[in-house]
Design goal:
The complex is a heterodimer of chains A (237) and B (415). Helix content of chain A is 33%, strand content 29%. Chain A is of the alpha/beta class and 237 residues long. Chain A has a domain of 164 residues: 3-Layer(aba) Sandwich (Rossmann fold). In chain A, the strands form two sheets. Chain A has a six-stranded mixed sheet with strand order 6-7-8-3-9-10, with helices on both faces. In chain A, strands 2-1-4-5 form a four-stranded antiparallel sheet, with helices on one face. Among the domains of chain B are: 185 residues, no CATH class; 98 residues, no CATH class. The chains are: A alpha/beta (237), B alpha+beta (415).
Amino acid sequence: MPTMIEIKDLHKSYQMGSNALHVLKGLNFNVEEGELVAIMGSSGSGKSTLLNILGMLDVSDSGEYILDGVPIKNLNETKAAQYRNKFLGFIFQSFNLINYKTALENVALPLYYQGMGRKVRQEKALKYLEQVGLKEWSHHLPNELSGGQKQRVAIARAMVGEPKVLLADELTGALDSITSYEVMELLQKINDQGNTILVVTHEDDIAHMCKRIVHLRDGIIVKDEKIKQVRASEYVQ
Amino acid sequence: MFDLERWQEIFDTIRKNKLRTFLTGLSVASGIFILVVLLGFGQGMQNGIAREFAADASNRIWVWTEVTTKEYKGLNPGRPIQLRNENHAYIQQHFSEELEHKSPVFRVRNVQVNYGNEAVGYSVQGVSSGYQFIENEYMSQGRFINQSDEENASKVAVISNKIKREVVTKGEDVMAEFLDISGIKFKIIGVYGDMGGEREEERIFIPISTAQRVFNGADRINNLSYTFQPAATFEEAVAESIAVENELTAYLKEAHIVAPDDTSAVSTWNSLEEAKRYYSLTGNIKFFFWFVGICTIIAGVVGVSNIMLIVVKDRTREIGIRKALGAKPWSIVGMILQESIFVTAISGFAGLIASMGLLELVGPNIEVDYVENPSVSFTVAFTTVIVLIIAGAVAGFFPAWRAAKIHVVNALKDE
């Protein structure tokens, strides 16, 4: 399997008043195509910072980050926006749907920024909504949807641009356990199709539904293990 | 600008935020409304002042004399100066190119005017034919005094509309009647009206030659009055009139042996100089109105800017999401800016149309001294539109810039 993400000696610190807070202290790891990786750690372990750097929303102080052979460095905002649009799909804890746009319009938004025409955009968005099982809900506003439905719309939105990597930040954090498993089942299905997914979580059961767990503590990787994946479908009737 | 997708985005946003957009627009609309109404009234004042000047020819000079105040060439101060026919004749000859209409004025004093058995309480003045144009009189009936009346010293009189209305009681034709001035019959040959209204219609005109001969005037004249030849521009006209005024005064002072620096013996009143003062006043008033109007718009723009800042703050999360999904900074700037310009322009047009409608409706009915038919020209309307678009861009720019600078991580942080 070709390497999708390559991280070498990644450092990041934040200036907090007079003293610097060293958040990432030299991370090294690779993610291969088609992997489903959980990044675990307590709050303050640096997992959100890592995700932000991987998502090109933040920049590291030193170290290398290579995404599918493309070195990610010295990006201006415009370039970063372009890369995010082309290479990455985001899934957030609080869904982050635009509340005055329908499910379909939300899903179609990344395609708008790709410069795709309205008609093609909507067709494609509808296809992805169908994949997450929400075709009938395409013209509903986010506040007419349940939490699980919202997250599935968000997953469709992350998928619609056909990114290289999906980045999910505590995607089940706002959901009850049954809905969480349903969402994880969907994520596993997407992974089965060969998509690379990184999941940041602090929930053990969610982490064990991935294929590999990277444990982070105080800015360093303490454990990086392949695990036997628990299929979420076992919990879902 | 012509990106259809962008417009759809903007219409979506506006449709979903009707009240906010409406309030934003209202402040701009009222700003433009105030500006246009102010400018309309500025124009109205200019029209009004022009009307006031329409009472007389606006390029007129008036000469009168008093007593000398300075000793000169052995002559004592306190000597009365009397204008005479020869003065008028000299000026008529020497300034024939600079002056258009010319007329001396002789005031007939201590006379009793009767029409039939009715006493007419108005003054009588002896004038030349040119006086009609100097005073801007129009003829309602008959004709004004002409050259041959003057040469023949005819006993004819011209009365005004006002006098006619007061004396004609039986519906008779006034043109067939006679006016009795101190026992001498004058045939009424015309009825005049004055642009300046009734207070300018209180004189009876007779030929100056008749006035001097019949009423013991010899060759005495009370006043000289002339109009200048029209010039290409207003500024030129003013400059020429001042030159002629000075020459004319110099001649009269020399002819009557008056010290050149004696300002009260021979006096002149030049309406062009006066008009210039009024026109520069209206210019200043217009400038002031623009100033106030622009300030109002600035207040509106600051309002829009403020609201757009709140909008940006409101939409911080949304903008964060858009940026995470791949929106480039300039697309965010464009989105906010275009929305701001669109809202400003549409509401500004609404204000413009409302104010122009008001001026159109109310303007012609306004009849106050110094204000007439307030209105705005196409140029002014066009200028305000340009001002609007610039205002919208300015109002939107800073909020848009702030929006583009939003940090995605912070924007998406859960509260």
